């Protein structure tokens, strides 16, 4: 009696062990073959492009971990009920949805010619500089040493995620961000035009571009996934292609001033211009609205704006507005390993290179800008009315952005 019981247990354990072996074997041998040989979709058979960034393929042994990643990825794929991803009734064809879920990124373009070497080297240089500066103790700024886990969720609100293509964009206001936001809207298909996704970036109205409901940002993760949010963010940060665009920090400030205080902007007038006028321009009772102020020709001067930035009181009241907040505070470049660093000064070449690297240059084109961009050559004129002492303090405030992204210290402004 006892031995037969033992025998039963032994058989059951043995079977379980065999099943386990089969599972492990299947994962190691099956995964790659199965993947290519069973067409899930009836669509055109495009061979799977290699993963975006060819991280060195570590040995096959942690296949269990990569399976977990693949498992997690399934849930990360789109079309699984994202509220920002409305599907029109007629397009919600079950077979199409399934296809999309299991064969994501099928619209990836495959390039047969390599990227121009100078463009590739430019990116390598910028990325190497970032890594060096993050490791270099001579550059110190708040939050530099913290880990990604220590970044508060609300500081992740500038990272826009596109799960369809595996892209993360950190937007920096005053650095072509409207156009890149337009591209993110198109790629994530979050805007529908007559039931089909909008494909033309230029056709997206300005107020929609900046409406946060159009974008899936990392801080919204928190609401959806709760305590798993940070883990999922890290998985995406590891797998997705991350990019940002920057420009000369002082020129960015001039651009912000021109855009927000030289043009009528009621919101910025009430929130910031009135404060500057009261504090730095001897206007104890500034005009009540921006129209009244413009009618009598009153607006804060550029030196007033700089004074506002340097005033310790400003940050005590609230963090810098995103239009003049430092890039290192918006995008956390020492915690997030960006794959692509674009410069506004080389925007067109960088945009072309980036869209190609993302393999979406067949989906969307970067809109050419014909606006009157703030030029670096005006810097001298703009700062001529700012005292040299204030310029030096301002440089200290923005020094991390200068050094992280390779912009030269503006010696001619600081050494007068
Ligand atoms: C759904 O897709 C299948 C196959 O692609 C097609 O035959 C069918 O007509 C589609 N149905 C609708 C409602 O579009
Ligand atoms: C850190 O940066 C300074 C100034 O850019 C440079 O002189 C120094 O060599 C760097 N240190 C390291 C370890 O790279
Ligand atoms: C960051 O770490 C470096 C040494 O690794 C240290 O010199 C520096 O003071 C630290 N900065 C902050 C803000 O903690
Ligand atoms: C943003 O878009 C949503 C829905 O499209 C709309 O309800 C909301 O009013 C918009 N917000 C702004 C500030 O325009
Ligand atoms: C651009 O703006 C600057 C200053 O606002 C002005 O001097 C210049 O003439 C403008 N250029 C064009 C092409 O509009």
Automatic annotation (TrEMBL):
Q: What's an example Gene Ontology biological process for this entry?
A: proteoglycan biosynthetic process
Primary location recorded for the protein, binned into one broad class: Golgi
Residue spans of biased composition, Low complexity class: 54-63
Q: Where does the record say this protein resides? A: Golgi apparatus membrane
* Source superkingdom: Eukaryota
Which ranges form a coiled coil? none
For bias type Pro residues, the affected ranges are 43-53
Listed transmembrane segments? 7-26
The alphabetized UniProt keywords are:
Carbohydrate metabolism, Glycoprotein, Golgi apparatus, Membrane, Signal-anchor, Transferase, Transmembrane, Transmembrane helix
**Carries keyword Glycoprotein?**
yes
Any idea which GO molecular function terms this record carries?
sulfotransferase activity
Membrane-related topology note: Single-pass type II membrane protein
Q: What is its EC number?
A: 2.8.2.-
Under SUPFAM superfamilies, the record lists:
P-loop containing nucleoside triphosphate hydrolases
Region entry Disordered, spans? 43-63, 77-100
Q: Name one GO cellular component term.
A: Golgi membrane
InterPro entries for this protein: Carb_sulfotrans_8-10 (IPR018011), P-loop_NTPase (IPR027417), Sulfotransferase (IPR005331)
Which family does this protein fall into?
A: Belongs to the sulfotransferase 2 family.
- This chain's protein is named Carbohydrate sulfotransferase
The opening ranks of the lineage are: Eukaryota, Metazoa, Chordata, Craniata, Vertebrata
């Amino acid at each position: 009696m006892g031995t037969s019981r033992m025998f039963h247990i032994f058989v059951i354990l043995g079977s379980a062990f065999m099943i386990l072996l089969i599972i492990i074997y299947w994962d190691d041998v099956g995964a790659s073959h199965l993947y290519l040989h069973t067409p899930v979709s009836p669509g055109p058979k495009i061979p799977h492009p290699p993963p975006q960034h060819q991280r060195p393929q570590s040995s096959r042994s942690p296949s269990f971990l990569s399976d977990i990643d693949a498992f997690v990825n399934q849930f990360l794929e789109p079309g699984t009920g994202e509220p920002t991803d409305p599907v029109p009734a007629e397009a919600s064809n079950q077979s199409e949805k399934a296809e999309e879920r299991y064969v994501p990124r099928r619209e990836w373009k495959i390039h047969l010619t390599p990227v121009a070497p100078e463009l590739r080297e430019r990116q390598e240089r910028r990325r190497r500089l970032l890594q060096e500066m993050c490791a270099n103790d001579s550059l110190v700024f708040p939050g530099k040493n913290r880990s990604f886990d220590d970044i508060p969720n609300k500081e992740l609100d500038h990272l826009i995620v596109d799960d369809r293509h595996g892209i993360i964009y950190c937007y920096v206001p005053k650095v072509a961000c409207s156009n890149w936001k337009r591209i993110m809207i198109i790629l994530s298909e979050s805007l529908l035009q007559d039931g089909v996704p909008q494909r033309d970036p230029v056709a997206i109205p300005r107020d929609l571009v900046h409406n946060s409901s159009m974008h899936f940002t990392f801080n919204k993760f928190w609401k959806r996934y709760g305590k798993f949010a940070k883990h999922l963010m890290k998985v995406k940060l590891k797998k997705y292609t991350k990019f940002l665009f920057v420009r000369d920090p002082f020129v960015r400030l001039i651009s912000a001033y021109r855009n927000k205080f030289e043009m009528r902007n009621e919101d910025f007038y009430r929130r910031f211009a009135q404060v500057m006028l009261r504090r730095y321009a001897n206007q104890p009772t500034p005009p009540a609205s921006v129209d009244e102020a413009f009618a009598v020709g009153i607006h804060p001067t550029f030196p007033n704006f700089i004074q506002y930035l340097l005033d310790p009181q400003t940050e005590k009241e609230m963090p810098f507005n995103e239009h003049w907040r430092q890039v290192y505070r918006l995008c956390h470049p020492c915690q997030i390993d960006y794959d692509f660093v674009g410069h506004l000064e080389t925007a067109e070449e960088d945009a072309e290179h980036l869209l190609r690297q993302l393999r979406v240059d067949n989906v969307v084109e970067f809109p050419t800008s014909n606006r009157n961009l703030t030029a670096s050559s005006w810097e001298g004129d703009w700062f001529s009315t700012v005292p040299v002492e204030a310029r030096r303090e301002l440089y200290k405030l923005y020094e991390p952005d200068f050094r992280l992204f390779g912009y030269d210290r503006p010696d001619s402004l600081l050494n007068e």
